[in-house]
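I'm stuck. Please check this protein.
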Amino acid sequence: MTTSTVKRIKEGNVGIATVLAFAMIPMSGFATDIYIPSLPGMTTALGISSSQAQLTLSLFLISYGVSQLFIGGLLDSYGRYRIALVSMLLFCISCGIIANTHNLYVVYAMRIVHGITIAAMVVSKRALFIDLYSGEKLKHYLSFFTIIWSTGPIIAPFIGGYLEETFGWESNFYFLGGYAALLLILEVFFSGETIKSTTPFHPARIVSIYYEMLRTSSFTLGIGMLGLAYTMVMTYNMSGPFIIEHYFNLSPVVTGYCSLFLGFAWMVGGFIGKGTVNRPFVRKMNINILFQLAFALTLLVTFLLFNQLWTVLVFAFLVHVGAGFTYTNYFTYCLQRFPKNAGIAGGLTGGLVYVIVSLLSAGITYVLPAKDGQNLSFSYMALIVTSGLVMYRVLVVNRQEAAAVEQEKMQTV
C-alpha cells in the first residue's frame, strides 16, 4: 500500500484533525481507568480473585507496550490513516464482545486486542503532530501531551463509578466502544493521511534504528524515568479500588471521585512541568524526587496515626503531582529526540514505558498486595528511590557527554 492511494488530509481540515488527534491521546488512559471502580464488582460478577481482575489491566499494558515496539515501523512504512481507522473499528468490536461475555479468558483475549489497537491509534496520532508541525509549535503541542492524556485518568473513573453503580461493569465497555465509534466517524469525514513520504518496511533496518536509539543513554534513561513515573499512578489504580471498597467499605462512586481527584494531580504536575521547562533539568528533577519521597513517608506516618482515607488521598495526590512533573519533562524530550523516525521513536518510547509499567506494577502489587495505605506508601517509596538512582545515572551521563564535547572543542582548536 502506498500513501498516494489514501485520502490525504485537506489543508482546511488540519485544525479539526489536530483536535481529533488530541481526543485520541487519552484513549489509553480511558481503557485502563474507566473500569477501575468496577474491579471489585468484576471479581464478584465473574467469580474471580482480585489478582485475576488486576490481570486484565496488566494484559492490556503489556500488549499496548509490546505493540508500540512494532507499530511505529509499520506507520512509517504504510502510513498512519488506514491503520488507525481499522484499529478503531476492531476496538469497537472487542468492547462489545467484553460487555457481552462472562468468560474470563475471552475478556483477557479482548483486552490484548485493546492493547494492540489502541497502540496503533495513539502512536499514529503522536506521529501526526510531527508530520504537520515543527519548531516551537511542535514543542508547544508535545508539551501538552501529558496534560491532555491526563484527562483520561481524571474523567474516566468518575464516569466509570457512576456507570458501575447504575448499570454494572459491562457498561464501561459500551462507553469505550461508543467513544471510539464517534471518533471513527469524525476521522472518516475530517482527517486523512499526514505522512509526506514512507520508508520501505525492512525489519532489519528497523531493528538497527532501535539499536541506535537504545544506545543513546539519555534517551534510554528517559524511558526508564517515564516508566517509573507512570508506575506510581498505575500502582494506585490497581490498589486503590480495593483499599477504598474493601478496607474502608465505601462505594464504587467514592472510588470514582477519589480517582478523579488523583487524576487531577497528574494534570497539575504536567502544568508545573510545562511552566518550568527552561529551568536546569537535573536540579529540578532531583528536587522533585526529594519532595516525592517526603510525601510518601508522610503518607505512611499519617495513615498509621489516623487510619483515614484522607491521609491516603492527600499524600498520594502530592506523589502523583511529582509523577506528572517527571513524565512531562521526559516525554517531550524523548519524542523530539529522533524527528526523522518519529513513528519508530514514539512507538519505542511508548512501548518500553508500558512494558516497564506492566511488569513493575504487577510485581509491586504481588509483593505488596492491595490492602491498605501502608502497603501503598511502601510501593511509592520503592519507586521513588529507584527514580533517584536513575537520576544519579543521568547526572553521570550528562557529565560524561559535557566532557566529551569539551574535549572535541579542544581538538578542533
